[in-house]
Design brief:
273 residues, six-stranded antiparallel barrel, Thrombin, subunit H, alpha+beta, six-stranded antiparallel beta barrel
Length: 273
């Protein structure tokens, strides 16, 4: 009985083992089959989604792309327009500088010739330094360190390297007082070098402009015309530099003096030869 029983047990165990192996193989087959089916299903869904979504994406993206291109082109247009405006402004500025340089060149030649002619027509009495200023509300005066011991007399002209400064109104032994051209009580007979039109200039007290009281003749001067002493009043020598016409209003004009009255260190006292 014992051997037969062992054989049956062995056979039963082998059968169970075989069934187990077959079951595992079968299960594995179904699992693989299910995985492949699932993968096929997923790929099918993916393909269907792509066929639907891709055209929609293209439809949505096309206007966006067009708008993006328009925006980029507009930005480029604005940039080019800005650069063009900058270039135009630079051209205008350079033209202004060119015109100003030509004007200054001509003016410098005129002034140089005038200075040479003036030097030949003047007697230098004394070069004096400024000792102090006496600028009141209605008076523009400076004091210099030269007087009648230096042969300085009343009504002599005071000039510097830029032009007419004023005239001597008081003198003592070693000092003198000069009334500046910008003083409201100062007047000087002048002419324009462009056409020789005569006028009378007076100070305005502001230290900036001289104003004409009348114009002799029918022809109005032009802005930029150079004004010099006429010599007709026999106080100031002829052709002393006075200034340049800065603006014109009706029948009078305003002259910007060549002399910087806020920066006077010395003057030369002169007379006509």
């Amino acid at each position: 009985m014992a051997p037969k029983f062992k054989v049956k047990v062995f056979q039963t165990s082998r059968l169970i083992k075989n069934i187990t192996i077959i079951s595992v193989i079968t299960l594995s087959f179904f699992l693989v089959l299910f995985s492949k089916s699932d993968l096929i299903l997923i790929n099918s869904i993916k393909n269907i989604s792509s066929s639907i979504i891709n055209p929609l994406t293209s439809i949505v993206a096309s206007p966006v792309k067009v708008i993006s291109n328009i925006v980029n082109e507009y930005d480029e247009f604005k940039s080019l327009k800005f650069e063009n405006r900058i270039l135009q402004e630079e051209i205008i500025r350079l033209k202004k500088w060119q015109t100003l340089a030509i004007q200054n060149s001509r003016e410098n030649r005129v002034l140089k010739n005038l200075l040479q002619a003036t030097d030949n027509n003047l007697n230098l009495i004394k070069t004096a330094s400024l000792t102090n200023r006496n600028d009141g509300l209605f008076s523009k005066l400076i004091n210099i360190n030269a007087g009648y011991d230096d042969n300085i007399k009343k009504n002599m002209s005071a000039i510097n390297e830029r032009g007419l400064v004023g005239k001597v109104v008081h003198t003592n032994q070693n000092n003198s007082r000069v009334l500046l051209l910008t003083d409201p009580n100062m007047s000087v007979s002048v002419k324009t070098i462009s056409d020789g039109a005569f006028s009378l200039l007076s100070g305005m007290g502001d230290g900036k402009y001289l104003i004409s009281s009348f114009i002799k003749g029918n022809k109005m001067p032009k802005i930029g015309d150079i004004v010099v002493t006429s010599g007709t009043a026999q106080i100031f020598p002829v052709d002393l530099l006075v200034g340049k016409i800065a603006k014109i209003e009706k029948e009078r004009f305003y002259v910007l003096p060549f002399v910087d009255f806020n920066n006077i260190d010395y003057v030369q006292i002169v007379t006509s030869k």
